[in-house]
Amino acid sequence: MIKGLLAFFVAISAAVIPTQSAYAIEDPTTISIAEVTAYSGAISSGDLLMVVEYDLVYGSIPDETISEAFLGRFKIGQEILGSLVSVEYASVEPYAYNNKGYGKGIFSLYWTSEEKDADSIEFGNTNNEIYQIVLQGKVGVFPGTAPSITTTTIVWQDTANTQSLLFAQVKALAETLQNDAGWTNNTPLISTDGSTTQLTAKGEDYFTNAIPSLGSMIPGIYTTGVQLVNIPPDFHDRSFEDEVDQFWDSDGAWVDERFENLAETFRMPKAVITTMLSLAIMGGVVWGCARLMDNSDRGWEFGLLTIAVTLPLLTAVNWVPMGVTMSVALFALLGIGWTFFLRRAGS
Hints:
The protein is α+β, with helices and mostly antiparallel strands. The chain has helices at 2-16, 66-69, 113-118, 162-178, 201-210, 214-217, 239-245, 253-266, 270-292, 297-305, 307-316, 322-346, and strands spanning 30-40, 48-57, 70-80, 83-92, 103-111, 130-137, 148-151, 155-156, 190-193, 196-199. The protein has a four-stranded mixed beta sheet. Strands 4-3-6-7 form a four-stranded antiparallel beta sheet. It is elongated, with a radius of gyration of 35 Å. It starts with a helix and ends with a helix.
């Protein structure tokens, strides 16, 4: 009886609990990193781009793509008590394009200037640290120890010619890949017409994903270039506010002094007193317009419209704080939007 219940429970558990598909990928025939090239100023001053050329050979292409099975990593190694300990600072999944990403290909790692400084990475490795570029199988994907290859050799390019050198490398890589026997089904990657060399549609697809933002780095290699526009920042100051605050400093100083005396007497900010006076003035204008038009609905509507004139004028003479005016303007815009759109939609 007990065995029967256990068998029933196991059968129900197997049916209810979802199973997780297991990978069965084998180790590659060969795994290597051909070259690592580093650039500074690819997009902005002080940034860092590393382009990694790899060769990951399989006799039979696995079911899993390279992005499912491998990671490109950047690590910095440190000697601690005679042992090398590596800390990872960046990783990326190689782009699966030709033959699921296997064979010859590239991946890239990119840091902004701020990210590079935060990770304490020095262009040119001036501190002689152990910079490691790793192509490694993902843990749990391979049945045994994941295959891995590491190099510490980095070609640091001349920072004064970043764009031209990167253009030349991408051109050379595209030509190498399109002439490779493993890339036959995904060529051509680049074409030259006279003095113009540009990526083809397939070349743009591959290199844009293998080196994100490449169109901003070397737009000339694209049929339709993408260029980051350097728009100088617009710094806002408080000069207008200061000018408004000084409105009563000359001939009308005695007016401002009266308000300051009232503020001290009633122990409240001067802006509260001037705002209350301004509201009274605006209300008087509204009432006056309505009276002139025999207290008709149109008269009151016209009177309310005068606030659009009186409020900015009273703000300009520093009687209504700018924040109050902006808040009223916001509610006015919401009201106009409701009148023109929501009110009609609901009618």
